[in-house]
Task: structure prediction
Amino acid sequence: MTKNELFEKYHINESHSKWDSKIDNWMSVEIYRIMHDGNLPGDDTSTKYFTMFLDKTKDDEFMSKLMTRDDWGSLYLTAKRCIYSLSDKILIELN
Result:
């Protein structure tokens, strides 16, 4: 997969290039916890869980549960921002 294909698959564009430290640092940890049964990041340096998170948003049951959170929109946007900023590392993991 190329960077263009990755961005096209997850609908990533330049609007996702701006990182908001106050929101995105926290939300990226929350995404990790969602995708790892509530555990906090340790020595795990994998980043593909951001793509896995966006893939799971296509699942109606997962999305319904996610939308009960007040911060679900921030989680979704942070996942896209993480894919934008970590795309080279993600591509290495995916390919």
Notes: The radius of gyration is 13 Å. The mean pLDDT is 94. The helical segments are 3-9, 21-35, 49-56, 60-66, 72-85, 87-94. The CA atoms of residues 24 and 33 lie 14 Å apart.
